[in-house]
Design brief:
With 85 residues, the chain is of the alpha+beta class. It contains one helix and two strands, in the order E-E-H.
């Protein structure tokens, strides 16, 4: 579970809760800023749908997962199994 927040000019403008994602699929290597270079969330636009304004700064802070050691180990095993295929 994650609790992402979005700040613009130091002011929080959005906050939500993500209960679960696909293990190993989403991470910083698939995180795009300023354009959508992966699979679109909706098909109302054409990729890469680049932002034409100025982005001054992006901070990504990752905290503790809140998972037990056993659950963490399971996720790591699933991720590794998927990479080996």
């Amino acid at each position: 579970m994650a609790k992402p927040s979005c700040f613009i000019d130091g002011e929080e403008v959005a906050r939500d809760r993500i209960e679960a994602t696909v293990a190993g699929r989403f991470g910083l290597d698939t995180f795009n800023v300023g354009q959508d270079a992966g699979s679109p969330v909706i098909h109302d636009y054409t990729m890469p749908f680049a932002y034409t304004g100025e982005i001054g700064q992006v901070d990504v802070r990752i905290g503790k997962s809140g998972l037990s050691k056993e659950d963490e180990d399971k996720l790591h095993a699933q991720f590794k199994a998927g990479k080996d295929n």
